Design the sequence.
């Protein structure tokens, strides 16, 4: 395999790195047009439109939308029908994810000032959330768990899942995960029409307040377009891992960790930074040795040749500077002393510390969420969490004495902005 | 004035209410096309394009982008030049806003499990934030304060403000507020070209990580389009107030509070809910009496006639149900005992409790932010806050013992999803 080898000593390094990171996420005009039509049609015709698109795109016939709702018994049967080892693993993962996320829950707060004025914020869960789950090969039970659990922990009253089942083909693991995490209702619809149904509501499908979950380009476009009518999560790009090694690890562990990212998708990105050129050679050799043993070796090879790199850095400090520039979705600190580096990292979706912390443990069961900011968005966004299913309302209770102190300030500023009614509202509360 | 009077006893009430709340935020294709061109042009040509658009749209000539940066001395001079009362009011407001927002700061957290595995989240501020400030009449110093202060409290390293100055006309109050809150750099550019410059960076203007602040339809479209490359705040709709009264207040106070919302904009929405029909009559009479005294009476009348309503409800519980349906930006609980109602409110940007808490005190100086979710988005989003300028990275440090416990779970689930490299990464860490 032809693995890209770079060095920070190369004067062209930063330009080469930026080109390697660049990812064209520009929108496709044909998709945009189709999605705009689907949204308008579902908004206007509701269930009828959704049934029609489901017939056309998913080759699934139904006379009424109610026929496309899965009974709860069917979810439970899917769970009960899993092999015991899978069922137990799913339960153990769910318990750990729940326990971690419970620590993220925001609480209301309030304080009282000397004059009796009380200020604070009230935190409430969202009422109803829609969870989009892709059909086909990208439908992962772990993803159902990771998207639904924070909503459940937040206290969301109703969680509605949509999952396309082309020609009626259902994914038992996905339904089992939905049962385990406590999804309230499931409709077997997908695409932009499912996003539209959740965003606007139809006679059968209630309007939600936020839509989360991964999807293809049509789903991503639909989510962007309904943003504002409902909340949405980030639109995800290809998955990425950045490994910082000090050369102390087992090169096979590092090679496999790069593979684990690469096997997702040919556009996935796996990059290794190390100050030890000999270690980079050993990882390259392990990659060559282990690749033939991987069932998804073609995807892995395409991903690593197309978007991967082994980068020789001068030292670990420089590796951290590069990590902050990349702001990776996953960052492995595969070093003897990860705590010495972690304070230097400002931007990363998740930081995996030490040789035993493979990214795959985090994907499934360590506890933290696997829905993470991609494509450098860790510069400004966070892992999916309970806080994404809670919102705040400011609380303001000004006492009579407080109104005397604040009124003149507000009135002065309001007059300065030419907003007389604002000023008068403050002045009316002043004792004369 | 012709004020809409509604009653929840009317069988058509909910349909009438929904029609009144409806606000067409559909995008204008001509604006979309122009904005797409501006973004592409700035992305490609940088400073040259921004200078060109500034010349065309703002009638402002400059040979270089450096000439469009305001020196810090000029901000300070604007502040020093304010009348003493305004300067003091601005300082007092800033101090209160700062004090309130300091309580919003998120902290990193971590915990250790029995087998030594450590899990948590690390919280860091954004590196660099762009603040859009509109030119002309909608440029408010209070808005500079409210947008910039949470970023400063979060610890954002560099805060870059853009503000168009058509034909070179500057707003001294805005510059003074920028000085007071500690904005780092100010460029006198605006429109979609300013958003593009901040999102992509140019030779002179550094790329930011998030863009906040209000703007016209071009700015809103540009922000939506660069979302993902950078973070953005919510795109705001017209401002709204919902007042719940038990009939115990002074009808003139209520009338003026409705005016304060209405004076913003003809599309602003002011609605009063009250179970006491006589009180609604008294508020209507106060509106007629006080309207002629308002400098912005034409805007107020247009707003109240077009989008306002006095609504007779059966009781305060019903008023809370309607409030949750509206999910208003501003909610005034103008009642004797607001604490009895506040627990019933699930969706509101800010809740103003008691007769002395006019919304205008909150706009300027009570402490909480005045950037609030509009157009029913309080169902899923929050006031602008320090948390909007911080982000989280998951921390995962699995011990050797932890890897033995977690490895089999991860491997089982990974095999179930057909991701062999994920499974192998977990299995390699198992002791044999």
Sequence:
């Amino acid at each position: 395999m032809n693995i890209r080898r770079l060095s920070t000593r190369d004067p062209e390094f930063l330009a080469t790195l930026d080109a390697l990171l660049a990812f064209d996420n520009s929108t496709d005009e044909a998709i945009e047009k189709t999605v705009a039509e689907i949204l308008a049609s579902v908004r206007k015709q509701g269930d009828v439109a959704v049934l029609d698109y489901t017939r056309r795109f998913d080759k699934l016939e139904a006379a009424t939308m109610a026929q496309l709702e899965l009974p709860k018994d069917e979810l439970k049967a899917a769970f009960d029908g899993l092999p015991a080892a899978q069922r137990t693993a799913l339960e153990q993962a769910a318990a750990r994810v729940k326990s971690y996320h419970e620590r993220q829950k925001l609480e209301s707060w309030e304080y009282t000032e000397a004059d009796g004025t009380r200020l604070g914020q009230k935190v409430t869960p969202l009422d109803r959330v829609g969870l989009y789950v892709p059909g086909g090969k990208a439908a992962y039970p772990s993803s159902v768990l990771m998207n639904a659990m924070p909503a459940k922990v937040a206290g969301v009253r109703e969680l509605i899942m949509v999952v396309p089942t082309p020609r009626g083909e259902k994914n038992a693991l996905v339904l089992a995960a939905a049962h385990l995490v406590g999804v309230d209702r499931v409709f077997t619809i997908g695409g932009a029409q499912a996003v539209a149904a959740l965003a606007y509501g139809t006679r059968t499908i209630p309007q939600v307040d936020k839509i989360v979950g991964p999807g293809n380009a049509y789903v991503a476009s639909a989510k962007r377009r309904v943003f504002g009518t409902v909340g949405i999560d980030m639109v995800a790009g290809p998955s990425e891992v950045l490994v910082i090694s000090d050369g102390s690890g087992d090169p096979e562990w590092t090679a496999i960790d790069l593979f684990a990212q690469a096997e997702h998708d040919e556009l996935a990105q796996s990059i290794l930074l190390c100050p030890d050129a000999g270690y980079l050679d050993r990882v390259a050799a392990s990659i060559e040795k282990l690749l033939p043993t991987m069932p998804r070796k073609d995807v892995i090879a395409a991903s690593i040749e197309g978007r991967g790199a082994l980068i020789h850095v001068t030292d670990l400090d420089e590796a951290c500077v590069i990590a902050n520039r990349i702001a990776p979705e996953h960052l492995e600190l595969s070093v003897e002393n990860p705590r010495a580096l972690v304070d230097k990292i400002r931007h990363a979706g998740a930081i995996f510390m030490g040789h035993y912390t493979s990214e795959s443990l985090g994907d499934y069961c360590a506890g933290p969420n696997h829905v993470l900011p991609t494509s450098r968005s860790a510069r400004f966004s966070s892992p999916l969490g309970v806080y994404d299913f809670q919102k705040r309302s400011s609380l303001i209770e000004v006492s009579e004495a407080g109104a005397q102190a604040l009124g003149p300030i507000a009135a002065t500023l309001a007059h300065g902005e030419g907003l007389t009614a604002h000023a008068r509202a403050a002045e009316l509360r002043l004792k004369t």
In short: Chain A touches chain B through 121 residues (CB under 8 Å). The CA atoms of residues 24 and 350 of chain A lie 23 Å apart. The first helix of chain A runs from residue 13 to 21. The longest strand of chain A covers residues 118-125.
